[in-house]
Design goal:
Blueprint (H helix, E strand, L loop, with lengths): L2 E5 L2 E4 L4 E8 L8 E6 L6 E6 L6 E3 L7 E6 L4 E6 L8 E8 L12 E3 L3 E6 L1
């Protein structure tokens, strides 16, 4: 049974930093794309970034490029999202997701299993 547990969210001032973690359990981690999505109030779930199964390639939404860094530690089955220079527009619930299929990747929210989310609030 797959389980994804996010941690590290909280309240931070604009310009500050946070590091989110996601602990995955239940299945082999290394052959699967891992990603972060976020959902602000009244909005759809938006792609933030993803790191592919080989860990050599990471992709980001334009809105976070240069400020966020996604990484994975396969032996620990853990995914990270380092967020810097945070802006009020980054306020959202952040979700860790794991692809349902090996060697699958998409910026769509379809085809992933989801964690419960962690709240990030950036004050101005």
């Amino acid at each position: 049974q797959l389980r994804l547990v996010e941690s590290g969210g909280g309240l931070v001032q604009a310009g500050g930093s946070l590091r989110l973690s996601c602990a995955a359990s239940g299945r082999t981690f290394s052959s699967y794309t891992m990603a972060w999505f976020r959902q602000a109030p009244g909005r759809e779930r938006d792609f933030v970034g993803a790191v592919l199964w080989n860990s050599d390639h990471a992709y980001y939404a334009d809105s976070v490029k240069g400020r966020f860094t996604i990484s994975r530690d396969d032996p620990k089955n853990t995914l990270y999202l380092q967020m810097t220079n945070l802006k009020p527009d980054d306020t959202a619930v952040y979700y860790c997701v794991k692809a349902d299929f090996a060697y699958y990747a998409t910026v769509s929210p379809l085809g992933y299993s989801w964690g419960q989310g962690t709240q990030v609030t950036v004050s101005s």
